[in-house]
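SUBJECT: A protein chain and its fold
Encoding: whole-number codes for local backbone shapes
RECORD BEGINS BELOW THIS LINE
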Amino acid sequence: MIRQELDKLELPAEPGVYFWKDAEGKILYIGKATSLRDRVRSYFAPDVIKTRGAHIVDMVFKATIVTYEVTHTVLEALILEANLIKKYKPYYNTKEKDDKSFNVVVITKEDFPRIILVRQKDLDTRNKTVTLPRLGLQNCKYDAVFGPFPSGPSVREALKIIRHIFPFRDRASAQKDKEAFYRQIALAPDVSNSEAAKEYRKNIGRIKLILQGKMQSLIKGLKKEMTEAAKREAFEEANVLKQKVFALEHIQDISLIKRDLERSSGEEVFRLEAYDIAHLSGKQMVGVMTVVENSNPNKNEYRKFIIRGFDKANDAGALREVLVRRLAHTEWPYPNAIVVDGNIIQINVATEALKELQLDIPIIAVTKDERHRPKAISGNAELVEAHKFAILLANNEAHRFAITFHKLKRQKAQFGNTLKKQ
């Protein structure tokens, strides 16, 4: 297909899903878009082979027509894309990566189901179980699976949007010491009694409708429930339903739009996570994670860790603890590469931790001199060459953040000791 043929289609500047098809009408590729017009046009950008790959250039060459389906929101486009990829299994979608590495949303089969994001490889579809040791799941029965979703970060953002409307349990909020906190911030349901369980089952059913791509049917059903509640003079219930309807009709999917615009401009989000450990002779040991996306720090996603497994200096052991704890958070986007402060020891520790968790993420190490200045970068040579500035920035941010956090922790400890003496 050539650009001149595309211009005749008059694609709308609305969200939706597009289909690249060959001369026989066979679907070659399915994608989602914030703006169908801008997204499809981006396939003819001069740097498309660099940003999308040779296989996508090949797909465009073989395609003769583009069709589309408009959706109300980017969230609906994301879900429709996943459902259509599952239905049609287009060659150039599955060619992008191994089917087993795609993300799927799983709803567990429990009294108070959890909703979690996992890889297809973690599913036993014959026995309808999911096994993910780092999340505490061992042959856990599941009730439903949705996906595959090509973009992990996008589906995580989608789940955040859904969760603010219909709170659900996930890995973190299912932990007893965190359950109350998540309930207080309205991200997890009440699990205290049978009536709460009944209401939660309703919400799980509503979430299923969203993930099935039946948003408009859900809104229609909620409006009917709202009218019936008002007739019974159950005004509080009617008001809650009214708020849900309003939220669904005015979904704020800005985060999804941001990611889609980055992809439309040919700029994929390249996420680096850097880790560092700080302590004073093994005391007040802490670890941190910093995030750099497309060479810009994303300070909203920086994380702090108080080291629990060691009471004396053990930088390698502390790094392993931090990585294991961080990577258990599947609701956080996984990085394209991990940056550690050190040398082959830290690389080996990080590699072993990832291997145990069955994750394949490149490890890059920044080695410092006696004045703590970078003197060498080890790891994938192509990644290092392409992202050297971002790697050094992430590493420097991790060192600064770790020192700041450690000083704060020491000051709090000293203040506490002073109070005890008084």
